[in-house]
Amino acid sequence: MAQSHLLGLPRIGAKRELKFALEKYWREETSQEELQQVAHSIRQQNWSTALDKGIDWLTVGDFSFYDQVLDTSILLGVTPERFENGKADNLLDNYFRIARGSAPQGSQVQPSEMTKWFNTNYHYIVPEFNQEQQFSLNLDLLQPQIDQAKDLSSKVKVQLIGPVTYLWLGKSRDQTDFNKLGLLPQLVKTYQQLLNHLEQQGIEWVQIEEPILALDLDDSWVNAVTQAYTELGADAGVKLLLTTYFGHITDKLDRIAELPLDGLHLDLVSGGNEQLAEVAQNWPKSKVLSVGIVNGRNIWRNDLKSSLDALKQSKERYGDNLWVSSSCSLLHSPVDLNSEQQLDDELQSWLAFAEQKVQEVADLSKALNHGSEAIKESLQASDVAVASKKSSSRVHNSNVQQRVAAISELERQRKSEFAQRKNAQREHFRFPLLATTTIGSFPQTDSIRQARRAFKSKEIDEQQYTQAIQQEIQQAIHEQEAIGLDVLVHGEAERNDMVEYFGEQLNGFAFTQFGWVQSYGSRCVKPPIIYGDVSRKQAITVEWSKYAQSLSEKKVKGMLTGPTTILAWSFEREDLSAPQIADQIALALRDEVLDLEKNGIDVIQIDEPAFRELLPLRKSEQPQYLEWSVNAFRLSTAGVADTTQIHTHMCYSEFNEIIDSIARLDADVITIESSRSDMELLQTFNDFQYPNEIGPGVYDIHSPRIPTKDEVSELIQQAAKHIPVDQLWVNPDCGLKTRNWDQVRPALKNLVDAATEARQQLTA
To answer: Where is the Cobalamin-independent methionine synthase MetE C-terminal/archaeal domain (predicted)?
Structure first.
């Protein structure tokens, strides 16, 4: 019989129960025991649902209180030395100190660096290594999950991040770089101890994940995989399912096939069905082949007929050794489509969230074992949905298509080169050296949320809602002027989310009530759905920006989200290429940029925090992506005058390899995350001799900790070692939406004071 399993399930709960439990615990409103009870309930619900829908194997280890990579660090005893000072007397609070710098118990400390998980919007906590790194098992987070799952089923599969990927994800923070692979022999021994423990627990299968196999790896890392699994597979005592996702591994299949492994998982969604032919030539039919054919990263219903056709040949070859699964963890999907009450019937019929994807995996396995008749109703519903989506009149707009077809290269070019624009802007704005600003958002207060809820429920009318938001804008402007910032923002009080807000103002987008997806920790996002051609309905931000500018003599930035980020942080349609969708969005944003300029807003920020995120994992595919993503940004910004200053913002990604493309965006000012990584990113900008202006973040807003003036000063001084002072801006890492005013006021005051002091020191 073909077997069904899942690589992982959402851990936030159907109504974001984990988010609210975490935040209550951090505010010391609930106990650790109550937090653990919520976690236990979410896992119980996930596993019970999987079993009820017909999934054969329960996956354990996919749950996390904050991040799966941080969980692995705890499992392996990797705790940076600075967290030993002022530590709490319990594991969970020390765990949160590493993630966010603060917990109910233990002193505040600078948290570990956070960055994007491959090409997703999920963030992980970067492991920190040193040359004398020691590893030791700590099962306190994992063991309770194993015990809980074993009460539900005898078929329990444990999920682990593999040792080679774990090393690849980490970095040295306090020492000069060293070869991380030198730590592999000791790390493998620790994994052997872990696998032995799991064997003693009666675990038969371990899903050991090595997603770096989807990357272009040099020989040293490929050899490391061989070394690790030659040792681990030799006498593991448990069966190892080597798990890959986010791309193809055809270039490494011959090496992988030689390893003493018991199974292999492939991502057919990102890697393509053509992998199956390569696998049949390399992977023994005596071993398990797990096929990830249900998309774990998008929300469209699976074409069950096409999936069955793709699986049949593998079933003939692998028989009972064929497993069916999602392409990757369903962590990246919303929880349950059945919670949605406001989507129309046609659109809803096209969709599948995590619970529906679980059913699709179970159905495909059932059909392979018992024939198509066994899932007749599911197949019929799938066929109807596929046909409906293809023929629906709501998907295509001829006016949008014609406008995209008519785009000229001149529309993607600023009127003058940056050197000329810089002189014009300095004469026009006369901003001080080391000008201070923020990234855009200010705290989302209870009054903002109450006003938004009241407006949506029609308890207040549009005029009352506008007045409520204007009051928030007034406060944001007043606070910034009192603090002494040089370039202000309106605070984005009207926005629920930086992508969802814009999607609501654009044709071709749909929205959910409960389509939440975890980004990191308690931070969840609700991506809009791009189902059709995109165009702007009307001006989106102009009135809010005009109002904010009327309140101050200082410049107030217009704030927009860029085309690549809107695309990346939405669930995109599958019938149109990403470049075409990006250009549609870019044209809508271009209209907004020009309207802002016409209304006197001549500092405009178009954020692209996801610019690095969509970068293909394979180098051969990257130039094409970088070309169209740069072109889309330029299309949205290039129509303005030389004296209009275009800003962009990027955060929590590694930019070293794409610095030339960042320069080709031709933004006048770029702001970037850099405080958690001690400004190390600036070396890249220095080596490249980045020509435009840059604002390295000097305030880590993802931690509740308030940086001191001296700490900010030190970061400014570090930045000045890499970037000429006349190119530098001073700003936080990211928007301040998730913080509160009691944290924001002193932090920004320290930022402004440090910048003022640095102006005097660096120009003396």
So the answer is: 434-756
User: What is the SS3 assignment for 227?
Assistant: helix
Tokens of 81: 């030395």
Is residue 698 one of the residues assigned to a domain?
yes
Range of the domain at 247: 3-288
Q: CA dihedral in degrees (369, 371, 372, 374; nearest 10)? A: -80
pLDDT over threshold 90, residue 339 = yes
Is 702 one of the annotated active-site residues of the chain? yes
Q: Per residue in 216-233, pLDDT tens?
A: 999 999 999 999 999 999
What's the number of domains the chain is made of? 2
Calculate ∠ Cα 685-691-693, nearest 5°.
Answer: 85
Cβ-based neighbours of 715, under 8 Å, separated by 6 or more? 674, 675, 678, 679, 696, 698
Shortest CA distance to 723 belongs to which of 680, 689, 755? Answer: 689
The separation between CA 575 and the C-alpha centre of its own chain, rounded to angstroms, equals 23
Q: Is 328 annotated as a binding residue?
A: no
As a whole number of angstroms, the distance between CA 16 and CA 596 comes to 36
Q: Please indicate, yes or no, whether residues 8 and 156 belong to a single structural domain of this protein.
A: yes
Task: Tell me what pLDDT residue 176 has.
Answer: 66
Tell me whether residue 19 is annotated as binding.
Answer: yes
CA angle 594, 571, 607 (to 5 degrees): 35
Annotated binding residue 523: yes
Q: What is the pLDDT of residues 415-438, one digit of tens each?
A: 999 999 999 999 999 999 999 999
Q: Are 600 and 647 in contact (CB under 8 A)?
A: no
- Rounded average pLDDT over 332-352: 95
Point out the domain boundary residue: 242, 260, 288: 288
> Is 121 known to sit in a ligand binding site?
yes
520: domain CATH number is 3.20.20.210
- Please indicate, yes or no, whether the overall pTM of this predicted structure exceeds 0.70: yes
d(CA 46, CA 310): 28
Per-residue pLDDT band at 174 (split at 50, 70, 90): low
**Alpha-carbon distance 225 to 236, whole Å?**
16
* Residue 121 placed within a domain: yes
Question: At which residue do the structure tokens 């965006």 appear?
Answer: 665
Instruction: Evaluate whether residue 450 is within a structural domain.
Output: yes
Question: Do residues 674 and 728 lie in contact, with contact meaning Cβ atoms separated by under 8 Å?
Answer: no
Q: Is 524 annotated as a binding residue?
A: yes
The whole-number average pLDDT for the span 6-17 is: 97
Check whether 734 is labelled as a binding-site residue: yes
pLDDT of residue 678: 62
Interval 646-673: pLDDT, tens: 999 987 566 778 889 999 999 999 998 8
For the record, the structure tokens of 255 come out as 């090496």
pLDDT, tens digit, for every residue of 568-605? 999 999 999 999 999 999 999 999 999 999 999 999 99
CB 115 within 8 A of CB 652: yes
Average pLDDT of the residues of the chain: 94
Q: Is 526 annotated as a binding residue?
A: no
Q: Is 440 annotated as a binding residue?
A: yes
Residue pair 608/649 in contact (Cβ under 8 Å)? The answer is yes
Q: Give me the catalytic one of 123, 490, 702, 722.
A: 702
Q: How many CB atoms lie within 10 A of CB 433?
A: 15
For residue 169, being part of any structural domain is answered with yes
For 727, residues 6+ apart whose C-beta sits below 8 A from its C-beta are 690, 692, 693, 694
Residue 319, annotated as binding a ligand? no
Q: Look at residue 135 and tell me whether its pLDDT is greater than 70.
A: yes
Q: Virtual CA dihedral for 335, 341, 345, 348, nearest 10 degrees?
A: -20
**Where does a domain end: 261, 288, 315?**
288
276 with 417, same domain?
no
Q: Read off the pLDDT of residues 376-399 as tens digits, 9 standing for 90 and up.
A: 999 999 999 999 999 998 999 999
